[in-house]
Backbone:
């Protein structure tokens, strides 16, 4: 079995995927909050 050296793996793709996931989550939360505010203002 090959020896594993800690920190030697290329994780650029994983980092890009994580950044994309965080960006999508922030956008989704912002849109959801915006829709809720819109609904609250138009329901009065």
Residues:
């Amino acid at each position: 079995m090959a020896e594993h050296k800690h920190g030697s793996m290329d994780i650029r793709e994983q980092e890009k995927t994580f950044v994309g996931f965080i960006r999508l989550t922030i956008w989704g939360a912002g849109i959801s909050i915006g829709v809720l505010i819109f609904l609250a203002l138009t329901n009065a």
Observations:
- The mean pLDDT is 93.
- The chain has one helix and no strands.
